[in-house]
Write a structure and sequence with these properties.
By secondary structure, the protein is α/β, with parallel strands linked by helices. Helix content is 14%, strand content 33%. It contains three helices and ten strands, in the order E-E-E-H-E-H-E-H-E-E-E-E-E. A seven-stranded mixed sheet has the order 5-4-6-1-7-10-9. Strands 3-2-8 form a three-stranded antiparallel sheet, with no helix packed on it. Helix 2 links the parallel strand 4 and strand 5. The radius of gyration is 14 Å and the shape is globular. The relative contact order is 0.29.
């Protein structure tokens, strides 16, 4: 499966059970990258994707299959490390307070692509695609 995750420079994903940002340019980029495919997320993330055709369920990481996509914000990914073939990081290029970090290994992954784009809340967002 492919997982989308938003992180700051310290690999932080959340603070006090809240996402660090709600950038609409990331939503547009995710929708472009998943056009015609299944995109899973939980109810918490669905708020970002209002009006988009996504599959919402709380156990989406368990049911997503090899060619599916998942948008992960407030779930631990450590137990799914073997199942995750590709990680798409959206990096804020800033440091924010965080009490939840990305819990996944990059030791067996290779950087396949990296590009920057302008977000709605950040002047520069870096997208990195890491694959096994």
């Amino acid at each position: 499966m492919t997982v989308f995750v938003c992180v700051d420079d310290n690999m932080g994903v959340a603070f006090n059970n809240r996402r660090q940002s709600r950038d609409s340019a990331i939503v547009s980029t995710v929708m472009e990258m998943t056009r015609g495919k299944k995109l899973y997320m939980n109810e918490y993330s669905k708020r970002l994707f209002s009006g988009e055709d996504v599959i919402v369920c709380e156990n989406y990481m368990d049911i997503a299959e090899e060619n599916d996509f998942c948008f992960a914000e407030n779930v631990s990914l450590a137990e799914y490390n073997e199942k995750i073939k590709t990680v798409v990081l959206f990096k804020w290029n800033k440091i924010y307070p965080n009490d939840k970090k990305l819990e996944i290994s990059f030791e067996d992954r290779e950087l396949q692509d990296s590009f920057d784009f302008v977000g709605s809340s950040h002047d520069k967002i870096t997208c990195e695609v890491w694959t096994k």
